[in-house]
UniProtKB/TrEMBL annotation:
Residues 41-75 are annotated as: Disordered. InterPro entries: Amidase/PGRP_sf (IPR036505), Amidase_domain (IPR002502). It comes from Streptomyces subrutilus. Transmembrane segments: none annotated. GO terms for molecular function: N-acetylmuramoyl-L-alanine amidase activity. Residues 81-212 form the N-acetylmuramoyl-L-alanine amidase domain. This is N-acetylmuramoyl-L-alanine amidase. GO terms for biological process: peptidoglycan catabolic process. CDD domains: PGRP.
């Protein structure tokens, strides 16, 4: 055995490889295999900083305020018929009505054949829909359309407003008090100001008993909610 010198140790080993070309086996060619000290570098382990980085999210734009005469927070569903543009002589307050039925009145008030509408509708669950700007005349209480805003409440004359309806009507009234100066008081006169009823208009308003005794008596509860919201 020959002694291994330092030079021989550093000499890269040679391997012979058979080369196949066109189906013929050629003479083996020497191939040099380099054995270096350098090893393949490991990829660094993924740490928290290597996780997918999400691009910064842009802050959501604030919703645009509703047009004048439309209540913020109410579901705005403008109808295309059954109301008069402008012509409001003043803002005396809000007139309470009863629907004598259930479900949104949007489809009914959108039908030109009904020739009726209201500014607002409140469901028994407290949902608020607005159909007409309070700067326009809804066709609700005949001669009272010029001075008053109207709200229909889902349900029937023989049943009181639900707690959710009391709160919702209070929200409508609180907005009207802030935006249009409605006084925090009950009224039973068509020439008064405050929270009234359809019945107070008598024959000039169609001679209706709407919204019935039970709901008429709940007006003070509505105003109590409004006062609480003003104090909060």
């Amino acid at each position: 055995m020959l002694p291994v010198t330092a030079a021989a140790h550093r000499r890269p080993p040679r391997r012979r490889v058979l080369v196949l070309v066109g189906g013929l086996l050629l003479a083996p060619l020497p191939v040099v295999v380099l054995l270096g000290n350098e090893r393949p570098r490991r990829q660094p382990a993924a740490g928290p900083e290597a996780e997918d980085v999400q691009p910064p999210r842009l802050a959501a734009a604030s919703p645009a305020p509703p047009p004048p005469g439309w209540m913020p927070g109410a579901t705005r569903k403008p109808i295309g018929a059954n109301f008069g543009q402008g012509g409001r002589a003043g803002q005396r307050g809000l007139v309470l009505h009863v629907q004598e039925g259930e479900g949104s009145l949007f489809e009914r008030f959108s039908d030109p054949r009904t020739r009726s509408s209201a500014h607002f509708w409140v469901s028994q669950a407290g949902e608020i829909e607005q159909y007409v700007s309070v700067h326009d005349r809804a066709w609700t209480q005949s001669a009272g359309n010029v001075d008053w805003v109207s709200v229909e409440t889902s349900g029937f004359t023989g049943r009181p407003l639900t707690a959710a309806q009391v709160d919702a009507v209070a929200r409508v009234y609180a907005w009207g008090a802030r935006a249009h100066g409605w006084p925090l008081e009950v009224t039973d006169s068509p020439t008064g100001r405050g929270l009234g009823t359809h019945a107070m208009g008598g024959a000039a308003w169609g001679a209706h008993a709407c919204p019935g005794t039970l709901r008429a008596r709940q007006r003070e509860a509505v105003l109590s909610r409004v006062r609480e919201s003003h104090q909060a």
